[in-house]
Fold these 3 entries.
Entry 1:
Amino acid sequence: SAPALIDEAAVAVKLSPVTEGNYSLPVVSNGIIGTGTESRLSFKIGGIVARVYVEEGTSVVKGQVLASLNLTEIDAQVAQARNNFEKSQRDWERVQRLYADSAATLEQWQNAQTAFNVAKEGLEAATFNRTYASIRATTSGKVIRKLVNEGELVSPGTTALIINAAAE
């Protein structure tokens, strides 16, 4: 009989019994998790942050005050605008009387009226800005990022907080 050929590419295999078990492997990854329900909240005007009332992870309800600016400078701007408005109103009323008595020109009357209108609009703008010296939650949810701290100077429109809306 012919000699047996040996296959040198053959590999020895060891057999083991099958066992069941739970294996938990960690997933390591980089990235940013977000949703389409995030809101980036900011102050309309710039100023010094007086208080931040929430931390990351805090649950919030719609309308809740989340942060506020120091009002010293903002209130002074409103007072200045109010004083300018009151003075321009007195001036315009005085020029109206003088114009009715032919003691003031049409140009003086028009200039006083323009100054009054500009001062009125300035007061409205300052008062409007004062109402936006705090950040309120636009929706109920959770604070997912806090980007400012008390005492920091922020520019208008700089994102201060990011909140994620709660599922409804």
Entry 2:
Amino acid sequence: FNKFRLVYDETHTVSVLADARVKLRNSLTADLGFAYNNCKPTSEEYAWYRPTTEGKLKLTYALNDQLSFNSTFLYQGGRYASIQDDFGSNRMGWGPEKLKDVFDLRFGADYKVDDQITAFALLDNVAHQKYQLYYNYPVSGIQFFAGVKLRF
């Protein structure tokens, strides 16, 4: 039942983007982001899986010059999936399906070793949401990532 259908289509897109960074205190900053995407495909009904609205709020607290903590809330809404059978025909109950909105909460930490190397840890999907990035493919529950960022 799980499958992907690859579609090439010319899409006319108008996006309105807004980003802001606010320094709340010496060590606390807030990053705010919003995007509205108006996509009009030439032959398809929707720009499949493309969100109409996106939002982000990230708070970062710098404990000192090396260690910082952050929390991020992400939102995506207005996404559609194309549900069709193997022959491409729409049967009863098949067709476009509106996907549930995405609400994601993550916590992270960064440790700056020097100007080029930063170690990080990230706890993603803290609320354990089962949203679908693609139809019938729910994301994993709580996820943990760790690694190193290199700056050249």
Entry 3:
Amino acid sequence: MPYEGGLAARLILDRWLNNGASNIEQLNGAGLAVIIDAAKRELHLLTDRLGFYPAFAWSEDGFVVCSNADVAAAALATAGRRCQFDKLTMAEFLRTGTATQPFTYWSGINQLDAGTYYRFSFGDRPRLVEQRRYWQPANLNHPYLTDREEIVESLTAALTSAVRKRTLPRLGKVAVMLSAGADSRAALFAACNP
């Protein structure tokens, strides 16, 4: 492709140009896809499936989208729109080490949902015009497993599949760095040739 940028950006752009958001929704990885369509005056944003790479938005009379809530608050302050400190969320964070999603310790700046497509318009009246969930974990659609043997078999199959995909011969020689922890041992013994 004649476009500049890394391979991931080029892949996302190629998929966007060929079928829009639905083609990007098939990708699976930790990241945040942001496409600015200057001709339509729109910003398209797709959060990764598990929310590994967080995104935050403020959208009262305009919008700010950012990967860090503090940076969003600073940008708003620079524009003369000071955010109020959310004492309740900060108290929750200090007590539990986390804040309940979508809240941040800045009132009005919320964390965006994982596995979700957002479309913002920055035309005459900047605003969020579309939001839809494109992915959620399969187990949310079915009852939880309760049989221990079934849980072990399912987890074993998932680990074996994950390790197989990451050790394919076409990826070259595989090296494994082990910490001697349970995660390392699980990955090692899930390999086809432990």
